[in-house]
Automatic annotation (TrEMBL):
The lineage of its organism: Eukaryota, Discoba, Heterolobosea, Tetramitia, Eutetramitia. It comes from the Eukaryota. It comes from Naegleria gruberi. Residues 1-17, 34-44 have a biased composition (Polar residues). This is Nuclear lim interactor-interacting protein. Residues 147-306 form the FCP1 homology domain.
Length: 332
């Protein structure tokens, strides 16, 4: 379960098939099962069950500890051009990235062609989501924002955005810890994404930082208590039980945070996670083990630009063009 079952890659070559299976799929049987429930454009989700996730329901194995990993953005293959092309010099400090622009663009996703119609397509999924459930203030999962906190709330995904964890041994983990889940003790192997600390140090100075994960709190809360024991960087932690379960896709309705959505953004490697608030979503490539990865640091200059607008959605919409992509899928 340490790798996704499939992943998207994006190439700079128009019309080139861009969806490929990740190397080393060790759970093909599981993949077959997941594919069978994959929504398609011809079967709108409006008639399907939509509910807030109940973290106590029907959990059978350790995979359930983590966020689903089958649908995410990945550069697992080599023909990808995303982000800034840096030269070989090692850039250790945030300042080194100041002049660069996070050039991940959803417009590149328009070039995606799918090898297999059964593959999950997050944009098709988002385009056919049922209406979002209404949220009442009493459902907010965070206390009101403190006056001392920065204006903008930065919501961060955890798995494959900030860390990669596995209950199967992985080479060179940064650390391990144990989790007791359904009566079984699991050892969790943890890798931190490169520049994890530098990124959190930078963003926690200018944002109210919230981690919103589709993983189980029994795992994620313990992990975050190791990563940020004094809550120096991450003010709040929100778990799967605050997600909306749509066909076992755990969507993160930002409204449940009780924050002004014009002042809230989310960074997540799975686009469908912010399917109900696409104008608030900032994509990032999935991370598993690339020690040369710099995506977190590349992101900082873009995040700082959010303060130049009264509504963060304006700049995010302009940058990633997700609405245009979804319009394409809604036609089918
Ligand atoms: Mg994730």
């Amino acid at each position: 379960m340490s790798n996704p079952k499939s992943a998207f890659i994006i190439t700079s070559s128009p019309n080139k098939p861009t969806q490929k299976k990740r190397k080393g799929n060790e759970n093909d049987a599981d993949q077959t099962e997941q594919k069978s429930s994959t929504p398609k454009s011809s079967s709108p989700l409006a008639l399907r069950k939509l509910s807030y996730s109940d973290s106590t329901s029907t959990i059978s194995n350790e995979d359930e500890l983590f966020s689903p990993r089958r649908f995410s953005l990945s550069d697992s293959d080599t023909d990808i051009t995303l982000g800034v092309n840096y030269d070989e010099k090692v850039m250790q400090k945030e300042e080194d990235y100041e002049e660069d622009i996070y050039d991940f663009s959803y417009s590149q996703l328009l070039d995606i062609e799918y090898e297999d119609d059964d593959e999950f397509n997050p944009f098709d999924f988002i385009a056919h989501l049922p209406p979002k459930p209404k949220i009442s203030p009493h459902q907010y999962c965070l206390p009101p924002k403190e006056l001392s906190q920065p204006d903008i709330t930065l919501v961060l995904d955890l798995d494959e955005t900030l860390v990669h964890c596995s209950t199967e041994p992985i080479p060179d983990p940064d650390f391990t810890f144990t989790v007791l889940f359904h009566g079984v003790e699991y050892t969790v192997y943890v890798r931190k994404r490169p520049y994890f600390v530098e990124f959190l140090e930078a963003v926690s100075k200018i944002f109210e930082v919230v981690v919103f994960t589709a993983s189980q709190s029994v795992y994620a809360d313990k992990l975050l208590s190791i990563l940020d024991p004094e809550r120096k960087y991450i003010k709040y932690r929100v778990f799967r039980n605050s997600c909306i379960d749509v066909e076992r896709n755990y969507l993160k309705d930002l409204e449940v945070l009780g924050r002004d959505l014009s002042k809230t953004c989310i960074v997540d490697n799975s686009p469908q996670a912010y399917g109900y608030q696409i104008d608030n979503g900032i994509p990032i490539l999935s991370w598993f083990d690339d020690k040369e990865d710099r995506e977190l640091m590349k992101l900082i200059p873009f995040l700082k630009q959010l303060y130049k607008h009264s509504d963060v959605r304006t700049i995010i919409r302009k940058k990633f063009h997700l609405r245009e992509i979804l319009d394409n899928y809604k036609k089918h």
